[in-house]
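Per reviewer request, we include the raw input and output of the structure prediction for the construct analysed in the revised manuscript.
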Amino acid sequence: MLEASIGANARKPCFSAIVVEEFLADATMSDLRAVDGIAARQLEVRAQNALEKRMRKARSPAIKPLEGYDLSQVAFPEGHGEPEPGSLALVDAGQDLVFHGKTGRGRTHLAIAIGIAAANAGKSVRFSTAAQLVMHLVEAKGRGTLRRALEDLEFVDLLIIDELGHVPLDVDGARLLFRVVSAAETGQSMVTATNIELGRWGTVFGDDKMASAIIDRLVCTGRLVEFDGTSYRMENALMLGKRADFWSIKTGVPMRACRKSTAVFVDFYLTEYIERRHLVAARP
């Protein structure tokens, strides 16, 4: 009977200051320890639930921590060193970052890692590819809920837009993305990952003037981060015989690495194929 009463009453609103003071005046040490333990556990559960809710809203495609990420091939802007794990200076300052580099250099990984660190610190985050974001806004416009969709994006602390340039945008899509970038000027932080140089963004947006306007807003409070070095995917490519351990684990059959000349050719061919595919996709 007592257990049922406690279970029912404990789920009701928090105690007032008067009730807490009265309890503290008469409680024994055993009572204090019990209540303190319950309160601490409640705060832990509440914090965990809030984090899980933020992670769901962030829509991150994967969980990639910043710890262990190789920053040796990442060129940060002058005056801005490598980000410390969990450091959210850029989010607190409302700054923007543009991650630029070829395919497979780790742009998405670092963007996700920063987003997860922000969510862990209580920040609201939203992750989306440029194509997904534009499609979401186009659908909202068709339903008559575009204003609400844009407002939802404005209220997040950190907006991450990945794969800008992988898929060209039409005029309507470019204008919608422009509205998102313009709204982010008012204290919101944005991380944009792209494999297209800023000077060629006109091929993505189908309009040099639109591209110039978007770049102007990003440059105002943003920093360009360059990703160099070799492709992580090429370094770990199964086709090049560099992941024989993975093949053996999956199939139970040892895989013999291909000849060096063959590996060099395949590496060159795949790199050229990926770059050409992105160039074709970027054409208006």
